[in-house]
Amino acid sequence: MASESSSADAAASGGVVTRFAPSPTGFLHIGGARTALFNWLYARHHGGRTLLRIEDTDRKRSTQEAIDAIIEGLDWLGLDYDAPPLFQSDRAERHAEVAWQLLNAGHAYKCFATPEELEAMREEQRANKKPLRYDGRWRDRDPAEAPEGAPFTIRLRTPNEGETTIHDRVQGAVTVKNEEIDDYIILRADGTPTYMLAVVVDDHDMGVTHVIRGDDHLNNAFRQLPIIRAMNQIEGNWPDPVYAHIPLIHGSDGAKLSKRHGALGVEAYRDEFGILPEALFNYLLRLGWGHGDREEITRAEAVELFDLDGVGKSPSRFDMKKLENLNGHYLREADDMRLAALVAARIGEEADVTLLARAMPELKVRAKNLNDLVEGSAFLFAKRPIALTDKAAQILEGEARNILRTICERLRGENDWTSETLEATTKALAEELGLGLGKLAQPMRAALTGTTTSPGIFDVLVLLGRDEALARLDAQAA
């Protein structure tokens, strides 16, 4: 995946290249998933390429489990990439090469300050209530002044006068005084690259033209641009990328998103909450981007409509209820056999996929997630004697059991076991008894399902089948 073509080549040919670059120190959380989605959509909308980079340089915290979860989560959302993932840890030699290029060209310098000296510098800054930043003590010193063989880091020689303006596609023009950016380390004393250097080199080598990421990275852009511009002076063909820094997602109460708001891994929405991928795709799309008042937008429509002009500057608010309502829409639109397979996987071996598929048109009407479908279909696989909820047991007290016995006698003589015929027979019986249909339907529902809520009672009779339905009614009528 590590193409050495630059973003200039891609831009010259009119090609957009975006990237998603997660750190595998945890699962794919909801904010990262939205960033991945926006990068994917922007590239697809413009007929470009979108790439995946795993920033696994933190070897202590990066895990294979997290890498697998990130890739699986992206795949579940339907976000495909135009090359195999690039692993940042494989490119340390290339990162160091650029650091030495910067050093040899005078855009960086060796810093021999010891950890003790740097800590003393910071203590003095704290005492004087000054910003904590490197004071440039080795910026203009001759390296020969350092003890022979002394360890050193390589620091970038950042501009210390004037200001830098980024024309961000979301935030607009943002200006920072160059004196606020200190000469930061790009290569550690042990020869390993820092995050700031690695990101810039990888983006260049991957041909990234548009850096779309959370606005918590906006400050990083001002630290990364000096590397890009210095390398452009050295080699040429290192253009500034187009930046688009997306506002973060907040909780429904406006506070920073946390686990209590829903800041969980994508797999939790799939496994714990029973959300469909197309629903989460649609919901994440609408978190911070809009197209009029439209809420439900298909994948194809999203590719057609998405552009950065529609991304707002204000943080969006995550609302689990809205996600579930949207998920309910997609459940009703989903193929019944597909839903049956998903629900069967949650129920276990006793599940009958064919029966679930037959029941799905009724079950999915009110469901908001797969868990609702599991709960709603439980009566199909319940074993006699059916366990009753407290409310169902109350319905079957007193005269209800006599009514059930009468219903059993009438239904036992019915050979055309269809919902239409069963409804007509039950309505006729209700009229004979001088009762409303509900007086018959309620005890039937309690006896057949053990609950007070279910699909239409005549659909329940058909789904259970004649023998099982009559056996359940008989058991509660006794």
TrEMBL record:
Location in or out of the cell: Cytoplasm
Reaction equations catalysed: tRNA(Glu) + L-glutamate + ATP = L-glutamyl-tRNA(Glu) + AMP + diphosphate
Main EC class the enzyme belongs to: ligase
Chain span(s) of sequence motif 'KMSKS' region: 256-260
Domain Glutamyl/glutaminyl-tRNA synthetase class Ib catalytic stretches: 16-324
Domain of life according to the entry: Bacteria
GO cellular component terms, A-Z: cytosol
Motif ('HIGH' region): 22-32
Domain Aminoacyl-tRNA synthetase class I anticodon-binding: start-end pairs: 339-475
EC numbers: 6.1.1.17
InterPro entries in the cross-refs: aa-tRNA-synth_I_cd-bd, aa-tRNA-synth_I_codon-bd_sub2, aa-tRNA-synth_I_CS, aa_tRNA-synth_I_cd-bd_sf, Glu-tRNA-ligase_bac/mito, Glu/Gln-tRNA-synth, Glu/Gln-tRNA-synth_Ib_cat-dom, GluQ/Sye
Subunit structure: Monomer.
Similarity section: Belongs to the class-I aminoacyl-tRNA synthetase family. Glutamate--tRNA ligase type 1 subfamily.
Function: Catalyzes the attachment of glutamate to tRNA(Glu) in a two-step reaction: glutamate is first activated by ATP to form Glu-AMP and then transferred to the acceptor end of tRNA(Glu).
Designated name of the protein: Glutamate--tRNA ligase
